[in-house]
Each structure stands twice: as structure tokens, then as C-alpha cells.
Amino acid sequence: QVELMESGGGLVKPGGSLRLSCAASGFDFSDSYMSWIRQAPGKGLEWLSFISNSGTTIYYADSVRGRFTISRDNAENSLWLQMNSLTVDDTAVYYCARDGSYGELAWFDYWGQGAQVTVSS
Amino acid sequence: QSALTQPASVSGSPGQSITVSCTGTSSDIGGYDFVSWYQHHPGKAPKLLISDVSNRPSGVSDRFSGSKSGNTASLTISGLQAEDEADYYCTSYSKTFHVVFGGGTKLTVL
After folding, report:
1. Partner B contacted by A95 (CB < 8 A)
2. pLDDT by residue (tens digit) across A37-91?
3. Alpha-carbon distance A54 to A52, whole Å?
4. Which residue among A4, A47, A108 places its CB closest to the CB of B98?
5. Minimal CB count within 10 Å: which of A42, B26, B51, B107?
6. Taking chain B (110 residues) in consecutive chunks of 10 residues, what is each chunk's mean pLDDT?
7. Would you say A86 and A12 are in contact if contact means Cβ atoms under 8 Å apart?
């Protein structure tokens, strides 16, 4: 059974940092291309970052480039998102998702349940 | 402001059909057949409904169908059911931004 489980969310002050984790199971994680996507309160979905199966190709949305870092460990079936210099606009539910199109960024077939990140003083 | 434009809401009665539009540009929807659609019930993981404009993944009801014309993609839901009430999102590969989402459409089943 395919499962993506995010963890590490919580309440953080503006300017602070947080590291989200995504534990994968039930599919070949090492052959999978992964992304982070978020949904702010009352807003739509926003793609944030992509990492190739080997970790050698990485993309970021303009809104997080320079502040967020995506990484993975295929031996641990794990994906991470290191988030620094957080602002209130980063308050959202964060999802990890698998790129089902093997790096074409065409569609996401597996999603986690999401992790809540709240940035507030 | 989302890169792709969707209507904020649509509604229909059980058994009817509805269509959700998703308008982009030649740099995303118009330039690639990489449009996908997702159903999102609040508090749950989004679910892939349509990939590559019109392909339905295994297990997705054939009441859901997708199409594209120029810079506009569409999701049609036929035979509306109460459980279809959810938020629907389109997304496309983008030459400029890698991936762009629509702002989402709330479907109300009357």
C-alpha cells in the first residue's frame, strides 16, 4: 500500500526555521521524482520544489528559492524540506507528492496527508 | 493570484453534468499536453483524476473526463453525485515556472 507521511510541522516564529520530513512506503522511492506542494489558508495549491530520483536535479518556485532546501535519502525512503527565514506567508499545509510522470512535472499520483506549518509571533 | 484561472465555484444537481474550465497561456497549457486535474476534500490528500489532459488513472470513475483547446483545459463530471462535492484543481507544466496550479474550483452538489 502506497503511503507518504509528512511530519515536522508546527508553530514557528517569523524568521525561524523548520524541517519537514516525508516518509515513503509501498512504492519504489529510489526511482521516484518528488515534489513539495503547499496550500495556504483559503488559497489554492502552490508547487514549491522538485527533486529528481537521484537528487541531482532540483527546482524551486520563486517564492521559496534561497530560503527552502529540498533533499532526499533513498536508503531511508525519505524526503525533506528545510525551511529557513520563514514568514507569515509561509503558513500553510505542506504536502509531499510523487511526480508520476518521471520528472516531466506533468502530474502527481501519490500525495501525503499534509503537515501544518504555522508562522506566527 | 494563481497562474491558471479557474472559476471560484460551480454547482449542479445530482445526475447532471458540470464542466470546470482552466485557462492559462501558450507557455503552459497551450504549449504542452501536461495538464492534470485533482479532487481535494478538505483535510484529505488531493487525488489525481486526470493526467496528460485526458488520461484517467486506474480506479478513477469514467464520470470524470478532461480535454484541452488552445490555452484552456476543461474537466467534465457527468452524473453528479453527492460525494463529488469537493475542490478541484488544474495544473500544468510551465516553461516559465515549472509547475503552475489553478486557484481551485469549489463544486457544490445541490
Report:
1. yes
2. 999 999 999 999 999 999 999 999 999 999 999 999 999 999 999 999 999 999 9
3. 5
4. A47
5. A42
6. 87 97 95 96 94 96 97 98 97 91 96
7. yes
